[in-house]
Amino acid sequence: MEILENTMIIDIIKESLNKSMNYHEYRTLVAALVEQQSTTGNDKTEALVEYTKMNDRRMKRWDKTVRLSDDSFEKITAYTKNVTWLVLTESWCGDAAHIMPVINKVAEQNANIDLKIVLRDENEDLMNQFLTNGGKAIPKLIAIDNKTLEVLDTFGPRPSIATEMVNVYKAQYGKLTPEFKEDLQRWYNKDKGQSTIEDLVKLLG
User: Fold this and answer.
1) Can you tell me the distance from the alpha carbon of 93 to that of 138, in angstroms, rounded to the nearest whole number?
2) How far apart, in whole angstroms, are the C-alpha atoms of residue 170 and residue 17?
3) Which InterPro entries has this protein been placed in (predicted)?
4) Residue 179, CA distances (Å) to 159, 176, 186 in order
5) Sign of CA dihedral 16, 20, 194, 164
6) How far apart are CA 45 and CA 38, in angstroms?
């Protein structure tokens, strides 16, 4: 049963990889959607269109400003396994706007890490294999061994510190309020991607 399940997951991964984009292609897509006043995803609401516009600005900023410490750089460049980081995302996702540029920054440092991006709503079979607490939370990074297509590990939808903040708040108040979401955005700005970098370095082992 487990072998059959693994074969099924590998087939799903192969299918998604065939539809994947690199980071430059993803950023070009998001910029084009802003020009068209549109968004990725099945729902094209005004709110999601506005989030896409806001996230394009955020990603532009992070693309220019994310910095790696010397220690992180050494650990990333020392990684020798040949892997693909396959990331599920959507242009409207607030967490993704802060995280995708950081993932790209890390992947750029090591030719052994191939970053590929797919859209969640166009890859439902893949998303359903990597749910977070039963939900289709994004961004979701799947680390894949290029030789075997074995899933080595996952990351997301948030860095571990932000995940803890969200879990504590939900436990206390039942759901995330607009005020908390604003606080979370401020946390991302203050953190400057460092918590995501730390988690990704741990992912590399």
Assistant:
1) 7
2) 34
3) Thioredoxin-like_sf
4) 20, 8, 11
5) negative
6) 9
The pLDDT value given to residue 112: 99
Instruction: Domain ranges for the chain, please list them.
Output: 2-204
Q: Rounded to 5 degrees, what are φ and ψ at 114? A: -105, 110
pLDDT given for residue 51 in this prediction:
98
Q: For the domain bounded by 2-204, which CATH number is listed?
A: 3.40.30.10
Q: Are the C-beta atoms of 178 and 185 separated by less than 8 Å?
A: no
Neighbours of 101 (CB within 10 A): 23
| Residue pLDDT, tens place only, 69-124 | 999 999 999 999 999 999 999 999 999 999 999 999 999 999 999 999 999 999 99
Q: For residue 5, what pLDDT band results from cuts at 50, 70 and 90?
A: confident
Q: Residue 205's pLDDT is what?
A: 86
The values of phi and psi at residue 142, to 5°, are -115, 115
Longest dimension (CA), the chain: 48
Residue 56: other Cβ atoms inside 10 A: 19
Determine contact, residues 141/156, Cβ cutoff 8 Å: yes
Is-cis flag, bond preceding 101, omega within 30? no
Q: How far apart are CA 32 and CA 12, in angstroms?
A: 28
